[in-house]
Every structure is written in C-alpha cells, then in structure tokens.
Amino acid sequence: MSKKSIKYSFTLLILGVLSARGQKEIISENQDLLWTRYHLTTHFSDRWKWVNEADNRVFLSSFHRAQFIGHTHVHRALGKNTEASVGFTYSNVNPPEPFKTNPQSTSEYRPFQELYFKQEMSHDRVKLQHRFRTEERFFDPMDGVTNFNWRFRYQLALSYSINRVIEAKANEEIFINAGKNIIYNTFDASRLYGALAFKIGKPLTFEAGYLRSVQQLSTGNQFLKRDNIRLTLFHQISPNS
Fold it and tell me: Beta strand 106-119 with 82-93: parallel, antiparallel or unpaired?
C-alpha cells in the first residue's frame, strides 16, 4: 500500500475525531447496547469466500431491541495483500428510546462494495488492515418517496497474536454521509473498538469486546454516544476440504 494512501487514511481518522469533538448536545442516558453477532465464513478456494453475519443489538437498560442487522458479501482475493467484496445489508432500527413500547422501526436496504489492504509489518504477530467501504442506503419510503444517501467508511484495524489461542484486536472506523438529503450530518459516526478473541477448536472463535460509538443525528447539533458490549462467534467452514 502506498504512503499516499496511508496518509489519506489517517487524514480521515483525524477529521472524524475533530468532528466528534465539536459536539453540542450529547445523548447518552440509557443508550448503551449489547451486540451479539454470528459471523460465518465459507471458503470455496484460496481466492473466493462468502461471508454471512447476523447481529442483534439490545438496550442494556431494558433489553428491548435497538437494531437487527444482517450482511451477506462475497470476497475475492486480488493479490497477496488485497481483497475486494460486494454485498448487501438489511437493517431494522428502532428509535433511541429504550423503554418505549411498540416503537415504530425503520428498515434499510443497503448494497455495498469494499476494498481491503493488508499492510506488511516487521513483526509476524502484528497485523494491520485498511478497509474502505462504499454504501448505497435505501430507507423505507416516507410519503411515497424513498429516502436515499451514500455513505463512505474507512476502518483501520490492528491485531496482535498473544499466543496460539488468544488474539488482541483494536480498530477505529469513520463514517461519512453524502447525497442531496444530507444537510447537517456529513459526519455520520465514529467507532472505537477493542477486543480479545479466543480460538475454540479449529472452526470457531469467540470474541468479546468494548465498542464506543458516537453518531451525529440529522439535526446536526445532537450526538448519540453509546458504550457497547460486543460478543461475536466466528465460524469458518470449507465445503471442499
């Protein structure tokens, strides 16, 4: 990966952090979530794999659902350290009101495209990865009109293998909105994540982590801050093996 690309990536991170610091009103009371995710990867060859994810998110204060989101995406290796994917996301989100009964949810239908770049490191136990994602976001129609906007995401991910069983992970991701319907919240969100992953036999890995998220609402002067617990079960299978 070129030095120019790396500088661009870190510039996005800095812009996201500066945007988050410009907060005017922070909404955080009773907003923390528990994320539980199942992540299945099916390997067809050294070049091709299919990833499916199901992620359920509930409010820790009430255990009412905040969001369900599912992803399916096909990956192809373009080289030793480069990978591309195309996929689709379905998301169903409830309002940020944990104790509200019968909330009116919003569904989203989201095609996306990704590029992954793995950066060579001097230490074999350390891995650094850059992920760029473009999303086309279609929301439930309002007054007969479908709401649409673009979103661009950059994630910088670092991992360190402590031993053969345990791996430490950390990543930061920045979300940028674009489109004619985006007026006040060009900066959409930032997520900072840290976790420990534990291998359970050959096909399974359990991961437990903490995720701090800050999201700018469409009003522009309100930010939704959440401290989340994330639990993930990773499952790897190879039908041809």
Answer: antiparallel
